Amino acid sequence: MKYVIIIIVISLILSIAVGIIWLWPTYQDFSKLKTQLAQKKIELANQNKYAQQLQEIGEQFDEKKELVDKINNALPISPHISSLLDFLQESAKQTGMSFEDIGWHELTSSEIEKIKTRMREYSVRITASGSYSAFKNFLFVLERSARLIDVVQTDFSLSSEQGKPMSFELILKVRSY
């Protein structure tokens, strides 16, 4: 009977040792999977947080879209000379001026300067005719426009004939990025 208890205890100890040795790799795999699951949960939470931040930024952008559109209009990405000339022509029509000649060229000369500032400047030369009040109104429209247009120089001459409109020459500086 004494030996039976010793045999049972030894058998129990051996079965526990064999069970531990046999189950140990499975337990390690389970622990690794548990750690990976925790990491994936953290990654998912971070991605959800990032997506939420992007959505909030998108909503903020939508709220300020009007302001961004004004900035894009003031500083167009490229000169789009056709849209600028259309704007100038429409402004002239509204104020009673008529264009006789238009020319333009880039003022930003060096490539290093273009890269450094990312800002480009263009000079636009306009020869127009009309009344003095129409010219003042045209300048007022240019001043009030959202575009960055600077009037660099103005020249005007009176006609010797009565009733003939005055001749104006404008040099404008326009910026884009």
Describe the fold and architecture.
It is a single chain. The chain is α+β, with helices and mostly antiparallel strands and 177 residues long. The chain has 2 domains: 2-63; 76-176, Alpha-Beta Plaits (2-Layer Sandwich). The protein has 5 helices and 4 strands; from the N terminus they run αααβαβαββ. It has helices spanning 2-63, 65-74, 81-95, 111-117, 132-144, and strands at 98-106, 120-130, 149-157, 166-176. A hairpin with an 8-residue loop joins strand 3 (149-157) and strand 4. The protein is rod-shaped, with a radius of gyration of 39 Å. 10% of the residues are buried.
CATH third-level topology of the largest domain: Alpha-Beta Plaits
* CATH homology superfamily of the largest domain: Ribosomal protein S6/Translation elongation factor EF1B
What shape does the CA trace take? Answer: rod-shaped
- Report the C-alpha radius of gyration, rounded: 39 Å
State the order of secondary-structure elements, H for helix, E for strand. Answer: HHHEHEHEE
Number of strands: 4
Number of domains: 2
